[in-house]
Every structure is written in structure tokens, then in C-alpha cells.
């Protein structure tokens, strides 16, 4: 559902033409206080969601808070995050309370809440990702407000997003949203820690670069959440792959959406790539993957060829990491500088075959493998530059 007009400023989040579909992420520290749910604040936020719906916008909520609510009811220490078992138990109890709260408050505005619990695997596996897309689309077409959280009661460390910032960005990809609004305990991204003198709020960011990452602080004032500024920047990168804008704004005020939009307080991350979202859907999913099976390191010539839109050939590979099979998602790293990730792709060979083919020309590969080689190690149609 691409926007008719591009988003260029915070005020566009309230424009159905520029932002027909919005994902709003609510952090634990905003939703849950020392005495339990912050009902009055949440009532105000739900009223804003209802107003967006009345304007003709679809809204999807990604809500934290299940673990914090469940821990309070079970009397668990450290907000339920003392161990994986505590977190899972707290989530199982808290998710009922959380979904009931959203259903009640949305219902007062005549809106129907729909609960979706997702794990990392649900959005990393292509078929399950498409199933999630279909479910979200049908719910929105039926007029419901999807309320999504990570399925912490069954997720283990290996299959967790670990924070709802990146989950919100992946949900935005799946739902073909126009923008993501991350409501947090800070006004946005500062050029240094906001606790330091002279810290300046950045109103707009065009692409998340290494310099932007260096500004991030992992601090969170609440102690309830699991994400910091680093996870929010990663979310911005995931969203940008699908041409989706992302905003970080403070949720610590009443009517936080109106404050961000009307006063222009927040940081708007604009994707550098303005390619059509529909044509890039599969590649955006691939680029947003958080769990990769391995990596290939390439030389400068191969890196330059990838930047021109070429496939990755064995001749340009200098190292192989991990254990992966044909069709697995892998990272492609540059061999110069800091060895940063240049791209994600689906490998045409398994790791052992890649290791045997390092630095070879195609004319040599049949003798090495014992069969006719494929045209490339990672084909350009199965590769996305980051």
C-alpha cells in the first residue's frame, strides 16, 4: 500500500495521502509504571489512534509491556527479566492483561483490537512472513487495529527479536506501511548522549551511516525495556530497505503523537532509496533479516561490481564464514577497511563448496566441483545492497 505522496516532514504522519498506513510502537516504560498500567496516558494515545482512523489512516500497534505486567502480577524480581524462564512466565500472564487493556480502550472508540504474537522465525521464514502479511492485510481491510507483540512466552534467545523496535520495522515491511513511529523515553536521536552538555536533537536523518551509529546511546532511563538507541537505528535501517520512513519521538507526554506532529519534535529518518516498494518487496525482506547463516568476504573488485548491480562471482571471494546450505541467507562483507556488511544474499552453494571455489574462474569450477558450475555464488536477483 504505497503512499501517494512521499513523507518529507513529521506533519506528514497525519496526512492520509502521505501516510495511509502507520505502525506505532509503544515501549514498556511508557505503558507500565510502578503502580501498573498507565491507563490515563494510554487512553490519550488510543484517542489519537482513533483520530487517525477517523482521518482514513490504517494503524498497527506494536506494544511492549507484557513481561512488565506479568512480572508485577507474579511478584518476579527485575521486572521479570532475571532469567529466560521468568520472562517467559511473566509474558504468559502479562499478555492476557495487555491484550485485554488494548481491546477495552480501543473498544470505547468503536474499534476492534486483533492480537498477533510473533517470533523472529515468523518473519525470517519467507512463507511465514507472507502469511503474516496476508493476515495483517485482511485485518486492516476488515477495519481492525492489529496489536502485535513478540511471543516472549515461547521465544528463546536464539529466536528472539530482543526488542520491539526492530519488530515494528519488520511488521511495517510485512504490512507495506508508509511509516513507523517509535514512541520512546527520549525526543529522538541526539548528536551525543542527551545527558551531555550541548547535545543537539537531530530533526532529520537521510540514511543511517556509521557516523549516525556512533551517536547512539544504549542507555534507557526506565530499566523496563530491552531496546536502546542502537536498536532504533537498526529499525530505521530495516524500514528504509522497503522505502519506509521512521520517526523516533518521546512518548512521555500526554497526546504524544500530536506533540511530535504539531510541534515537530522528534527525529525523522528518510530512506535514501526511493525505488518502488512493490518491486523491492522480496529484497526488502531479505535485507531486513536479522539471522544469517554465514558470510562471504569479498575483495575490492567484487565490492565495486556489486555496487554496479552485478552478481557475486567466486573469483572475488576471499573468505567463507559459518556453516550454510544452498538457499540460506548470508552476509557479504568487504575485505577492506572495517569489513562491514555490504549486502545480504541467498547463496547458490553451500559453505564447503564456496570454500573450494574461493578465487577461481568459472572455467575452473567444473573440475573442482565435478559438475557444471552455476552462473554465480550469489545472483543479483537474490541480493540486496545495504
Q: In short, what is this structure?
A:
By secondary structure, this protein is α/β, with parallel strands linked by helices.
- CATH hierarchy class name of the largest domain: Alpha Beta
* Helix proportion: 25-40%
So how many helices? 14
CA radius of gyration is 22 Å
Which regions have little confidence, pLDDT < 50, spanning 5+ residues? 220-226, 274-279
User: Which sequence of SSEs, written as H and E, runs from N to C?
Assistant: EHEEHEHHEHHEHEEHHEHEHEHEEEHHE
Overall number of domains: 2
Mean pLDDT: 87
Neighbour order of strands in the largest sheet: 5-6-4-1-7-9-10-8
CATH homologous superfamily placement of the largest domain: Acetylglutamate kinase-like
CATH topology type of the largest domain: Carbamate kinase
Number of strands: 15
Structural class: alpha/beta
Distance between the termini: 23 Å
Q: Determine the strand fraction and express it as a percent band.
A: 15-25%
At CATH's second level, what is the architecture of the largest domain? 3-Layer(aba) Sandwich
Largest sheet, strands/sense/barrel: 8 strands, mixed
Amino acid at each position: 500500500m504505497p503512499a501517494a505522496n512521499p513523507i518529507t516532514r513529521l506533519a506528514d504522519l497525519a496526512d492520509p495521502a502521505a501516510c495511509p498506513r502507520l505502525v506505532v510502537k509503544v515501549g514498556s516504560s511508557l505503558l507500565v509504571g510502578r503502580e501498573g498500567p498507565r491507563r490515563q496516558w494510554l487512553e490519550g494515545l488510543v484517542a489519537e489512534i482513533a483520530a487517525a482512523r477517523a482521518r482514513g489512516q490504517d494503524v498497527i500497534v506494536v506494544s511492549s509491556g507484557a513481561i512488565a505486567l506479568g512480572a508485577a502480577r507474579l511478584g518476579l524480581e527485575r521486572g521479570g527479566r532475571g532469567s529466560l524462564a521468568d520472562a517467559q512466565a511473566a509474558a504468559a500472564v502479562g499478555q492476557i492483561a495487555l491484550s485485554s487493556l488494548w481491546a477495552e480502550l480501543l473498544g470505547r472508540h468503536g474499534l476492534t483490537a486483533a492480537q498477533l504474537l510473533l517470533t523472529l522465525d515468523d518473519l525470517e521464514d519467507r512463507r511465514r512472513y507472507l502469511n503474516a502479511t496476508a493476515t495483517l492485510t485482511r485485518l486492516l481491510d476488515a477495519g481492525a487495529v492489529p496489536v502485535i507483540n513478540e511471543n516472549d512466552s515461547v521465544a528463546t534467545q536464539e529466536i528472539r527479536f530482543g526488542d520491539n523496535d526492530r519488530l515494528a520495522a519488520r511488521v511495517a515491511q510485512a504490512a507495506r506501511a508508509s511509516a513507523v513511529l517509535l514512541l520512546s523515553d527520549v525526543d529522538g536521536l541526539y548528536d551525543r548522549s542527551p545527558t551531555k552538555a550541548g547535545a543537539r536533537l537531530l530533526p532529520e536523518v537521510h540514511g543511517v551511516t556509521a557516523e549516525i551509529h556512533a551517536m547512539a546511546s544504549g542507555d534507557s532511563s526506565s530499566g523496563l525495556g530491552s531496546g536502546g538507541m542502537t536498536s532504533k537505528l537498526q529499525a530505521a535501517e530495516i524500514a528504509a530497505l522497503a522505502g519506509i520512513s521512521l520517526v523516533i519521538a518521546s512518548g512521555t507526554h500526554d497526546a504524544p503523537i500530536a506533540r511530535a506532529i504539531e510541534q515537530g519534535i522528534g527525529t525523522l529518518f528518510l530512506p535514501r532509496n526511493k525505488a518502488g516498494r512493490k518491486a523491492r518487496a522480496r529484497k526488502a525482506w531479505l535485507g531486513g533479516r536479522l539471522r544469517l547463516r554465514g558470510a562471504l568476504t569479498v575483495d575490492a573488485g567484487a565490492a565495486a561490481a556489486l555496487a554496479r548491480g552485478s552478481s557475486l562471482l567466486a573469483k572475488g571471494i576471499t573468505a567463507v564464514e559459518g556453516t550454510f546450505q544452498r538457499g540460506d541467507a548470508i552476509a557479504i562483507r568487504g575485505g577492506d577497511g572495517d569489513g562491514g556488511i555490504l549486502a545480504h544474499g541467498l547463496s547458490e552453494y553451500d559453505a564447503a563448496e564456496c570454500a573450494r571455489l574461493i578465487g577461481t574462474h568459472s572455467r575452473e569450477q567444473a573440475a573442482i566441483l565435478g559438475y557444471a558450475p552455476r552462473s554465480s555464488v550469489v545472483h543479483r536477483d537474490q541480493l540486496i545492497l545495504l
